[in-house]
Design a protein that fits this description.
Blueprint: H1 43-46, H2 49-73, H3 80-92, H4 96-116, H5 119-147
Helix pairs in contact: 2-3, 3-4
């Protein structure tokens, strides 16, 4: 899994805000993902090792708490995946591995969205959904014709 680039054989390089080609990483256009990897902590924090380490521990703890809440919300009604990715975004402010995971995820989601908007795929999905709804409606009709509607508070024993 090459998370740093779309090109085979290229790897991501961590930097202090500059691009791998010596630029400052602020190129306009679609190269927004080409920002330098690494800490986004304020300069005065990065200048002091103990303060930067404390900053990273705090960011990790906050990100971990957010990801844990997202994991708890996965089986429950709620935006579990959105919260997990928010926790990953918090981690990505400090950690290169999280930045790479988010870049890879963003690329895969974009590819899936482009596939979903393909007219052939949309037609197939609408057709399959319609067939599924017809099957469910037929099953519900058979069940109701056979057993009728029985509300739980009027069960006769």
């Amino acid at each position: 899994m090459n998370t740093g680039s779309n090109e085979p054989g290229e790897a991501a390089v961590a930097s202090d805000g500059g691009g791998a080609d010596g630029t400052d990483g602020t190129a306009a256009g679609p190269a927004r993902d080409e920002r330098g990897l690494g800490s986004r902590a304020p300069e005065f924090v990065r200048a002091r090792r103990v303060l930067h380490l404390s900053w990273q521990v705090g960011v990790f703890a906050i990100g971990l708490a957010v990801v844990a809440v997202g994991i708890v919300l996965l089986p429950l009604p709620g935006p579990g995946w959105v919260i997990i990715f928010a926790g990953m975004a918090i981690w990505a402010t400090e950690f290169v591995w999280a930045q790479l995971v988010l870049r890879w995820t963003k690329r895969k989601v974009t590819e899936a969205a482009q596939k979903a908007f393909d007219p052939k795929v949309r037609r197939r999905n609408i057709t399959l959904t319609t067939i599924g709804l017809v099957v469910v409606a037929a099953g519900a009709g058979v069940y109701l014709s056979r057993f009728g509607i029985v509300v739980p508070w009027k069960i006769e024993e």
